[in-house]
Amino acid sequence: MPKGCQRLMGYRVGVDVGGTFTDLVALEEASGRLHILKRPTTPADQSEGVADGLRALLALEGIPERAVAYLAHGTTICINAVLEKKGAATGLVTTRGMRDLLELRRQIRGDLYDLQADKPEPLVPRPRRHEVAERIRFDGTVDEPLALDEARRAIDELVQDGVRALAVFFLHSYVNPAHERAVRELVARDYPDLYLSISSEVLPEFREFERLSTTVLNAYVGPVMARYLGRLEERVRALGLPAPYILQSNGGVATASQTRERPVFTMASGPTAGVAGAVFVAQQAGEDRIITFDMGGTSTDVCLVERGTPLSATQKEYHGYPVKGAMLDVHSVGAGGGSLAWVDAGGFLRVGPESAGAMPGPACYGQGGASPTVTDANVVLGRLNPAYFLGGTIKLDPARAREAVETVLCGRLGGGLTHAAVGVLTVVNAQMAAAIRLTSVERGHDPRRFTLVAHGGAGPMHAAAVARLLRIPRVLVPPSPGVLCALGLVVADVKAEWSRTWLRLTAALAGDELGRVFAELEAEAREWARRGGLPVEALRLSRSADLRYRRQNYELTLPVGTRPSPKELETKFHRLHRRVFGHASPGAPVELVTLRVAARIPVPRRELTAAARPTGGLAEARKGTRPVYFADAGGFVDCPIYERAKLPVGIVLEGPAVVEQLDCTTVIEEGQRATADRWGNLLITLPEGTGAA
After folding, report:
1. How far apart are CA 505 and CA 588, in angstroms?
2. 153 contacts: CB under 8 Å, gap ≥ 6
3. Can you give the pTM of this predicted structure?
4. pLDDT tier at 2 (50, 70, 90 boundaries)?
């Protein structure tokens, strides 16, 4: 384990790869100072951009390679493989009669009234789904032994058919994994290079379709992630840097070797990094009830954080494919700076979900893009400084931005250039506000009680407008919002979770059988840490359980102590059920469903040290003025432009105003006020009573 994960020394480096830019930060542990850099993402091979960025950051800041004690990485490799259908050729070996479960799914239509809606194509085509004779009952007893010769023939045929990854899914293997383990031994002996994903190791829980889908996805992305990690480790090693940790969907990091085993749990690697960073800077500023708002080049990711703890989820769908497991409840919408604006067949303006990406990028980049994007609209409206994008390292072309908006939008919409550009921002802001409503209002949380933490390269430019739509009273813009995801990587703990479905009525529990199962899960956690070279003595374990009333279909999760009594479990469950659903049934039988053990190794954290800030007035921070469009101000106004690094602590900035810095631009609207705190955060307050109803 890198020594930087055990004690403060040297530099902790985080690298987050987004759709458009690769963000890097180096945290100097002795002083708390941050060094940042943004480089264009290299889509063909993300590891190339990572290595180039690391080399440039260390050279720019004069950091010797030996001083880097810890390296963490957030990646979009797995989700891109699914979105682009570029995963490995995958085969499936399953129980006789279960071959078509991958297509039958849950028989639930995404759109109730669309009878023609297509389900996602199965990642394993039917000819590559092979059945074998075997059957284990729900209680773990063997009803029909595994036909090992039949399994061997099925695997031989799949390998001859070009399969690079194999998923193994047998009924009720979460209770008794003996048959799946027999197949694993067979594959290890005959085809050691075949990537293997077996359901009892990936997700030992009931609900067949979700377990199958997660296992198949793990196999589908496994070889892709393994190849990428191999290239990444080779490049990092050549630079003389420590082995990288990889961010998981649960908001924690794991070693590269651990990630190879269950890569499906990195599907939300990038978005969760931003949540970790937002929680860190918000707590330092005294805010523990926040909504994270991460607007990048391709998408916007939002997550609600209550009392410093992000909301979690046990299942998400990625491009229509369910993944079950521990993860942060991050909601994503295809709305970013590079999102394409277009007019549909009915004449309505749309934004996204397609993006211009890093290449060719928005039209104003001058790299061949001809379609208008959100970034182009911001250039047209004066919100972006063409000469100071990324601190002036990239020069934007306003003429190309105007040409793209006029050519594609103006004729179809029947208005002028400004009208079309304003329409683009109106649509994209509404889409992002809807995403926040989904994660807050629709789950019983009032956004007016939260602070919006704006980050990502485009987040601070849109946050004030989105907050106005939702009547969120405060927006917090961190010191380096454009690289907050990369900062989140260096403050994220090592995390993992183990689970096992174990159906029992609480009233029927005898002795310490519950403790025995928890002990087995904890032993698995310690073995996982040992295999990954992690310090077992630093492991912090916590227990929880999914419970429900008998005959309910879904469960609630509650923490479990070391020796809970059945009565204690029932009492806690009744209380939780009443809080979540508004009612409880104290006389009804309570059933244990799934037991869980979460493992965590805390990383050292220290408060960030803000750069020395001037004590003068606003005059020193003012860079000049330029025409910027603000609807509330009646159109284009001669707007003051400020350099963020020169803003004095505590001084009040009245909107409309634009604040520029290396990694982002912050827009403060008419009637809003902003102050800089001692940590370097900008806190924007909205006038009371404004916004959408």
Report:
1. 11
2. none
3. 0.87
4. very low
